[in-house]
Design goal:
The complex is a heterodimer of chains A (118) and B (115). Chain A has 118 residues and is an all-beta fold. Chain A contains no helices and eleven strands. In chain A, strands 2, 4, 5, 6, 9, 10 and 11 form a seven-stranded mixed sheet that branches. In chain B, the strands form three sheets. In chain B, strands 2, 5, 6, 10, 11 and 12 form a six-stranded mixed sheet that branches.
Chain lengths: 118, 115
């Protein structure tokens, strides 16, 4: 099946710094990728939809200036958490679909990134 | 708006028991897709099944089976003869028509299978 790779899997950063998370579709081209956030023992909440070649679409309540999303190519989307604070500590996970598989398919998820801001 | 409810927060069973995870969904759309994902402690989401709204046939895959009933807006998941490796958080999710649609997740059910 399609593979989505997310990097890094874990990152610890200091308050006030920025951290970039990469999401790559390894064997297909993804025009759309999704970024989710999961708090401990909570569900996954969509943060934004990343569209190749255009601006991301953010969900209500998500700060677009804090969570910068760039989808510069058909195989790579990045999420940058700017000026990170301890409350940004969370599990971030991306997903993508392979549009060439025909019909509506399941989303394939990256391995997730556990961000800890100290 | 779409909504997915997984009323069971945590379930604990003994190995070899059967267990059913409940999922109830809400949507006004006639075309939609339902999913189940498994999230082991490592964190990644593992796809288990997709079902579209026009296909109410139940499905069995090994020890896993799914019961889709539109009349009750439910898409329940049963694990037969549970094993310790089945311990994980299981998410039910809903999406509307179209390959670019987001997933709306339930809150998940944490399943613990004890030896």
């Amino acid at each position: 099946g399609a593979v989505v790779s997310q990097h890094p899997s874990r990152v610890i950063c200091k308050s006030g710094t920025s951290v970039k998370i990469e999401c790559r579709s390894l064997d297909f081209q993804a025009t759309t990728m999704f970024w989710y956030r999961q708090f401990p023992k909570k569900s996954l909440m969509l943060m934004a939809t990343s569209n190749e070649g255009s601006k991301a679409t953010y969900e209500q309540g998500v700060e677009k200036d804090k969570f910068l999303i760039n989808h510069a190519s058909l195989t790579l989307s990045t999420l940058t958490v700017t000026s990170a604070h301890p409350e940004d500590s969370s599990f971030y996970i991306c997903s993508a679909r392979d549009p060439d598989r025909g019909g509506y398919t399941e989303a394939f998820f990256g391995q997730g990134t556990r961000l800890t801001v100290v | 708006a779409q909504k997915v409810t997984q009323a069971q927060t945590e379930i604990s069973v003994v190995e070899k028991e059967d267990v059913t995870l409940d999922c109830v969904y809400e949507t006004r759309d006639t075309t939609y897709y339902l999913f189940w994902y498994k999230q082991p402690p490592s964190g990644e989401l593992v796809f288990l099944i997709r079902r579209n709204s026009f296909d109410e046939q139940n499905e069995i895959s090994g020890r896993y089976s799914w019961n889709f009933q539109k009349s009750t807006s439910s898409f329940n998941f049963t694990i037969t003869a549970s094993q310790v490796v089945d311990s994980a958080v299981y998410f039910c999710a809903l999406s509307l028509q179209g390959g670019s649609e987001k997933l709306v997740f339930g809150k998940g059910t944490k399943l613990t299978v004890n030896p």
